[in-house]
Amino acid sequence: MSCWIDTHCHLDAAEFEADRDGVRAAARAAGVAHLVVPAVERANWSQVMALAHRHGDSYALGIHPLYTPRAREQDIAALREMLKERRDDPHLVAVGEIGLDFFVPGLDAGRQAWFYEQQIRLAREFDLPVILHVRKSSDHLLKTLRALKVKGGIAHAFNGSVQQAQAFIALGFRLGFGGAVTYDRALRLRELAASLPLQALVMETDAPDIPPHWLYTTAEQRAQGRLQGRNSPGELPRIAQAIADLRGMDAAQLAAATSDNARQALRGLPAWASIG
Predict the structure, then answer these.
(1) Where are the alpha helices (DSSP H) in 91-186?
(2) Is residue 134 part of a domain?
(3) Contact 37, 8 (CB under 8 A)
(4) Cis, bond preceding 208 (omega within 30 deg of 0)
(5) Taking the model in full, what pTM does it have?
(6) How many domains does the chain have?
(7) Any long-range contacts for 267-275 (C-beta under 8 Å, 24+ apart)?
(8) What is the CATH number for 174?
(9) Half-sphere exposure at residue 95, Cβ-oriented, CA atoms within 13 angstroms
(10) Mind listing the pLDDT tens digit for each residue in 203-226?
(11) Element of type H or E holding 6
């Protein structure tokens, strides 16, 4: 069985409240040997840290752009203190999930940008990579990264252009691919997954979000009472198989390559995270 690293899984989410440990155990049984659990706001930093330690996984600390409306400026000072306190914790692998979201209406772009830049500066201060939320915002993220260079990281759920992909790669980033690539209609994304350099790719689920096509239900189906399928880290091998098929390669080779890429992107995912 191939062994995988899920570089983006919100195991702390409320959707997993009833069976969180079972979800993690099922993922491990499916070959997902390691998870990276990114925080989204100050209120869940403790939980993601505890989960990573409990399951032998990794975590990232940060403030997600969708949570900036209720974040406070002093949360940045609190994040700095937490990063300082945890700087020797091998389970801490990045600052994240941070970034910009210009897709969701009603968000204050200036406020998002302030929190993003402040967290980039913290990543520089603590010599950490970053996990980036990239939605309709690649060029703005790249502009800041060129001005304030960090130690690479991952552009999560990447869905930009070839040129934007190349720009992230040139700055030392890997690109996260997950359930969205399983949809036949996602032509541009599938072309990227098939054609980008193998060393640029990492695997992720974003569980419980971004379900693969076999879990997706339409608005009409949901109106009829059919529930949306919950994405989980155990879906990663099947998602990855779709990418392996697109690239015409063996899944075991993809697992080895993307796991190595993840280790290089996120502080190397230290030796205790071995999936061998």
Answers:
(1) 109-125, 138-147, 162-170
(2) yes
(3) no
(4) yes
(5) 0.95
(6) 1
(7) 267/92, 267/93, 267/94, 267/128, 267/129, 269/5, 269/34, 269/36, 269/58, 269/93, 270/90, 272/56, 272/90, 273/5, 273/34, 273/56, 273/57, 273/58, 275/3, 275/4, 275/5, 275/33, 275/34
(8) 3.20.20.140
(9) 30
(10) 999 999 999 999 987 667 666 656
(11) strand 4-6
Of 132, 106, 103, 136, nearest to 119 by C-alpha is: 132
Beta strand 201-203 pairing with 58-61? unpaired
Q: Is residue 275 part of a domain?
A: no
CB atoms within 10 A of CB 18: 8
How do residues 5-51 score in pLDDT, each as one tens digit?
A: 999 999 999 999 999 999 999 999 999 999 999 999 999 999 999 99
Cα angle value 49/53/25 (rounded, 5°): 110
Q: Give per-residue pLDDT as tens, 94-121.
A: 999 999 999 999 999 999 999 999 999 9
Report DSSP state, residue 200: G
- pLDDT range class, residue 274, cuts 50, 70, 90: very low
Q: Please give the residue range of the domain that contains residue 244.
A: 4-268
